[in-house]
Amino acid sequence: MNRIKKAVFGVLVAGLAFSFSAFKTTNTKAIVTYYKTDMSYPEANDPRGYQYFSSDRCETGGSLCSAIWDLGTHPGPFIDGTPLPTSGVKMRLATAVEGHFE
Amino acid sequence: METTLNEHRNLRLNKKSREIIMDIAAYLFIILFMYTAANKLFTIKAFASTLAKSPLIGNLSMIVAWTIPLVEIAISLVLIFPQYRKIGMRACLLLMSIFTIYLSYMILAGSKLPCHCGGVISTMSWKQHICFNMGFIVLAITGLTTQKK
Questions:
Q1: Residue B140: CB partners within 8 Å, gap ≥ 6?
Q2: In chain B, whose CA is at the least distance from the CA of A97?
């Protein structure tokens, strides 16, 4: 009986962890990583110079490679190279990643 | 002499305590593996592209990207059942050791390190990632030690 209780609790824990992660991952479509491809705008919180890429394009070395942006009401980017909208977006705190765009 | 024996007896955990330690370790691994597996599966393309940058994985990135979360789920399922927890904990120890050796190799070899790791640990640096893994390795060893007769 004790074993059954433990197994049921294990299933519960596993289900909660999986569904919480799935919810968090799929529910963050308006929160997107953008890559600083144009260092003419070196400030991390300056939305200019950022582009969207679906894959990881960072390399080590450099002060800024990417940052996570909240797109607000803008639709999510679907095509690589899409620039970050310059208004109505907000950089998420402490999400700037060091490095440089490849 | 008697004092030493008494102290030794006090240090030994009773069966109930050992069971509790094993249960906590198992549930923590279940949470870790299920959380990271879901994250990897729901962002499988991005995860594979990160792995593709690794010199050790390269062209096998898509296979490895699917294998890792599926193995994590399989181990979690084994850990759910108390009678198989020892096997599951050994698998945890093996998997975490492989991850840690891989990360250490990447750092020591000075390879071109991708910036993102994905999952719950995506905000960690590679060195922090190793420390995190070491913590879970210690947890697995603790869990296994308590099961020794």
A1: B25, B29, B89, B90, B92, B93, B96
A2: B115
